[in-house]
Design goal:
This protein is mainly alpha-helical and 64 residues long. The protein has three helices and no strands. The chain starts with a helix and ends in a 12-residue tail after the last helix.
Length: 64
């Protein structure tokens, strides 16, 4: 039971990160509540990776 809940939460988080990456390629306003929610919920995942993965200009490879 607990494993299914954890698996479902991981799937939701992965989809949220995927949607965030897709939306980042378009000019979506950052004050949009959906974009704000996606940024708030997914930022803890790529944030530590940004310290490890070097920056490449305008491309952010941390979510991938």
């Amino acid at each position: 039971m607990l494993a299914h809940v954890i698996d479902a939460l991981c799937q939701v988080l992965l989809w949220a990160i995927f949607i965030r990456v897709i939306l980042s390629r378009f000019s979506v306003r950052h004050d949009n509540p959906v974009v704000g929610f996606l940024n708030f919920t997914t930022e803890p995942v790529p944030s530590p990776l940004r310290r490890i993965i070097p920056g490449t200009g305008m491309f952010d490879f941390a979510p991938w």
